[in-house]
Design a protein that fits this description.
The structure holds 2 protein chains of 2 kinds.
Chain A (H helix, E strand, L loop, with lengths): L6 H25 L3 H4 L14 H9 L2 H32 L4 H15 L6 H11 L5 H24 L5 H8 L4 H9 L4 H17 L2 H6 L8 H11 L4 H36 L1
Chain B lengths: L2 H10 L3 H34 L18 H8 L3 H30 L6 H13 L2 H11 L6 H8 L16 H26 L3 H9 L4 H29 L3 H6 L11 H11 L3 H34 L1
Helix pairs in contact in B: 2-13, 3-13, 4-8, 4-10, 5-8, 8-10, 10-13, 12-13
Classes of the chains: A mainly alpha, B mainly alpha.
Chain lengths: 275, 310
């Protein structure tokens, strides 16, 4: 029996939501304002002459189309790769947790999850240099995949815990080996948790800033988040274009999230409690 | 599968246990490969480099220098302020995030209309890139054309516009505030999930016993949230203390090092001065600090699970 929310509940919720959303509303309004309306000492919520100039400047003059493409390539690849790795490891975590190698891997992942990227920045940079992949998609894909493996594995394994073992026993009687069982029987019924885990990996890669900023210096492979930072450095006063770039950067994550948020929030809280 | 194939397979992996071990090892291989090459090896390198004179500009000689690098960090006049800023930033971020996260989780756990909308709205800040959060707040906090200064002066709360990110008196508090805005939704989602898992009978029974709302909150709700709270608070202490992106994006440590923190020092040592040895020794110190926090966390966690079992 849940308590019904009174007026105080609604007022507080509305205030917190406003606090959360207002920056985005303001971002959106600013992105459509021409420069003279941006530089007004009395900011207004209405736009007298709405314009797409900021968007076209960012997309075509500042080459953001290329950065969007780069971000998509890196994030999608990292997402698929981490999903595959997390499915394999998560399944074993769930089914064979008594084996020594599994216990060891579990501990190793728990520790890895706590080690922040910035402390490993230099050796990672040098490792990427040594592998000859510094100025390429590959360095980012590998880095992003590595740092989401622990949480993604925990998310998948907590889902596999809920799949009845009888299903696998039946598959084994039908002559399936373990790999076939996992990929043909179990994965098809795991779509919701695959979505939430993949989404986490994708969003993480799409949003990451530091590795993209440090590993990539050539424009050809630059991703969206460092591009915004560098664009700001070169155009400190052009807030309209900066807000347009920000709108562009959040469109994919927001859209995907709005469609899939049910799966995402459930999966995320499962994985985080387990980890 | 023909007979001969079956027999060779049997010879390799005789028992069921061996088959399970082989299967587990194969499945874990990709994950372990990534973690060993890209986390394990770099981690060892950091610990080794901390005691050597390693410089990116001078690759040839890397002599062992003992604790020289650590002395260099500790005698850096920027170290103590950066440590203080890190502690301030971490403490107030985590406290603010927890209060806001718990409040919003409790509100969302009630029966309200439009709950789905509120939940999405509250989660959105966590979803967007830090750089976007940073840009948008920089724009809103702009002293000349920013909406926040306009609203605050218009409502008479402040007399003069404040350069929130450019004034050393306000910069660190402002960065902390923006960080709370961006990070608290994660607490909301985790705490909400824990609240929903509390069985209703607990409340009903205590209601019969005549417990008031506040007593119910203190004696039922809070204890049930302990283990989730411990995990998220611990994770965020570490994530906040070592966060590089947020401050770099908002102020780059400025004005005049007013928002300089330890991760920014690591970045400067390594990427601007190319002094890998010193950067590694600071990283090592932070790892040591994290391990201490972890030991502390582990002790509380064991205590809580023992109490829950009894």
């Amino acid at each position: 029996m849940k308590k019904k929310g009174g007026p105080v509940t609604y007022i507080l919720l509305a205030l917190i939501s406003l606090f959360c959303i207002f920056p985005f509303v303001w971002m959106l309004i600013s992105s459509f304002k021409p420069i003279d309306e941006i530089r007004q000492s009395v900011p207004k919520f209405t736009i007298n002459n709405p314009t797409f100039a900021n968007f076209s400047k960012v997309l075509f003059e500042a080459d953001f189309i290329k950065y969007i493409k780069n971000s998509l390539i890196v994030s999608l690849t990292a997402c698929v790769l981490s999903l595959f790795i997390a499915i394999c490891a998560g399944y074993v975590f769930s089914r064979y947790f008594r084996l020594r190698i599994v216990k060891f891997s579990n501990l190793f992942m728990l520790i890895s999850q706590m080690i922040p990227g910035v402390l490993l920045l230099i050796p990672l940079y040098l490792t990427m240099k040594f592998l000859g992949i510094l100025e390429s998609y590959m360095s980012l894909i590998l880095a992003y995949t590595t740092f989401v493996i622990p949480l993604c594995t925990f998310m998948m394994s907590s889902f596999f815990d809920t799949v009845p073992i009888a299903l696998e026993e039946a598959a084994e009687l039908d002559g399936y080996n373990k790999f076939q069982t996992l990929f043909k029987i179990i994965l098809p019924i795991s779509i919701p948790s695959l979505i939430s885990t993949g989404l986490y990996a994708f969003i993480n890669a799409w949003n990451e800033f530091m590795f993209g900023y440090v590993f990539i210096s050539s424009e050809d492979y630059r991703t969206l988040t460092p591009a915004i930072m560098l664009f700001k450095g070169a155009n400190t006063v052009d807030w309209g274009s900066l807000m347009a770039a920000s709108v562009i950067a959040i469109i994919p994550v927001t859209l995907i999230f709005l469609f899939l948020q049910r799966y995402f929030l459930a999966g995320l809280s499962n994985g985080s409690v387990k980890g | 599968m023909d007979m001969s194939n079956k027999r060779t397979k049997k010879r390799f992996l005789r028992t069921r246990k061996q088959r399970e071990q082989f299967f587990s090892a194969t499945m874990l291989f990709p994950a372990l490969l990534f973690l060993i090459v890209l986390i394990g090896y770099p981690l060892v390198t950091v610990l080794v480099d901390a005691f050597h004179n390693v410089n990116l500009l001078n690759n040839s000689a890397q002599p062992f220098v003992g604790l020289e690098n650590f002395k260099k960090v500790l005698s850096d006049p920027k170290f103590v302020p950066a440590l203080q800023h890190t502690l301030f930033y971490t403490f107030f971020s985590v406290v603010g995030e927890y209060i806001l996260g718990l409040t919003s989780a409790i509100l969302l756990n009630k029966k309200v209309k439009g709950r789905a909308f509120f939940r999405i709205a509250i989660f959105i800040p966590w979803l967007v890139p830090i750089i976007v959060a940073g840009m948008t707040w920089s724009w809103m906090l702009n002293p000349d054309f920013g909406i926040i200064n306009y609203l605050l002066t218009h409502l008479g709360i402040i007399k003069e516009p404040i350069n929130f990110l450019g004034d050393a008196n306000y910069a660190l508090q402002t960065v902390t505030f923006v960080n709370v805005w961006r990070s608290f939704p994660y607490y909301t989602i985790s705490l909400l999930a824990a609240l929903q898992a509390i069985p209703d009978d607990l409340y009903e029974a205590s209601g019969i016993d005549g417990a008031g709302k506040f007593e119910q909150f203190v004696h039922i709700t809070l204890p049930q949230l302990r283990s989730v709270s411990l995990v998220i608070v611990f994770m965020h202490i570490i994530w906040t203390a070592i966060n590089f992106d947020f401050i770099w994006v908002l102020t780059q440590g400025g004005p005049n090092y007013a928002t300089d923190t330890l991760p920014l020092m690591i970045y400067r040592y390594s990427m601007q001065k190319f002094d890998v040895g010193t950067a590694s020794s600071l990283s090592t110190m932070m790892l040591l600090g994290m391990s201490l926090i972890f030991v502390f966390y582990y002790k509380i966690k064991t205590k809580i699970s023992e109490e829950t079992l009894n």
